[in-house]
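Ticket #4471: structure export looks truncated?
Reporter: QA, pipeline team
Priority: medium

Steps to reproduce: submit the single chain below to the structure queue and open the exported record.
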Amino acid sequence: GLPEQLKEITTLAGPYLDGFQLNISWPSVDSLKEYFEAYPEKTLILQIGSRALSKIESLEKFKELLTAYRPIISGVLIDESDGTGRLFDSDRASHYLQTASEVQGLGLGVAGGLQTQTLHQLYPLIEKFSGLSIDAEGGLRTPSPEDALSVSCMQDYLREAFLMLDDQDTNLKK
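Actual output as written to the record:
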């Protein structure tokens, strides 16, 4: 099961593993709790993809689900693109992030189509959610058939993201 797999990977990785991003639609709280009890120092981030979001009846239900996962998970990653590179909807993501922010101590992240040219889409979110994490991969890859991470795209993306996030941090300190 899931706890055994996570424990095995943790053992194999040794001190080089900080935790996991779980790209699983609403895994069993009990299975995560079993892992958490064995490795409470490890970080667990729950990706909330389109499949997980399709099972949510309301924002109240979403908050209830997230609350059940605390303190086992450290944060959530709202990613409706499911790794396809489709650009996230800032307004929709904002609703989910706002609800998740009401769960004490839960870190917040967003993903979906992020690359240097789309970072500006994050401004409304980084202004509203202090400490927002961002996740990118698909937009930082070379075209098929190679489909490898592009070092130059990553450098450009990180440079722009750091500038943007530094601006947010500076504005918060004013």
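Status: closed, not a bug. The export was complete when the record was re-opened. Leaving a note from the reviewer for reference: The CA atoms of residues 80 and 154 lie 22 Å apart.
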